[in-house]
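Much of what follows relies on a compact textual record of a protein's fold. The record below shows the convention in full:
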Amino acid sequence: MSYDDKLLSMLKGLASGLALLLGSNTEVVVHDLKLREVVFIEHSHITGRSVGYHGDELMYSSVLELAQQKSDQLIGYKSTSPSGKPLRASHFLFRDEQGEPSALLCINQDISFQLEAKKMLEQQLFLQSMQEEENFSENDENYIQKTVKQVILRSIERLKPFSIDSKEGKLEVIRLLEYQGIFAVKDSVPQVCEILSISQATLYNYLRELRVKGNTNFDNYHF
């Protein structure tokens, strides 16, 4: 048995154990880099691939270049499944006796549940923080309006260099406000419309556009 065959056999055993350890929301894959194909995969429903799958040369070249820049490891970068689910991906590069890339062990974790839970928690904490402010009263209209305005202005500031004079900028602000749960607060819509200089009809159209596109990913924002 050649060195490459022994390496692939070892990696298949390791991948099988990792798949059991990490559970069904994590796909574990072994690629033969000499053949440019998948030789082992568990929980393939994550990406829909199977043993024998050939990735395109650009994909392999890109992954290899990135992995070699980071000591043959690429840990926890953001990716997306063919069905659009957010993934946390990690790649581990293994070399042959001549030091050439021989195999790739990949771990693709479906993190859609964690992101949705994070979103719900942040919305709940935002609403709770409003309610816990000193002297807060549901009937204190001025206080509510003031707090909502502060959230809107902070959101606009956070999204620079977007300009709220453009549709793109307005969409980004609305997307962030929806993520924070601001539209669940009484009388927030008129304030948003006033600050963004749009009508309520336009606001609802923008919200509909964002929801239809599923454009609510905030992985690149840090709250």
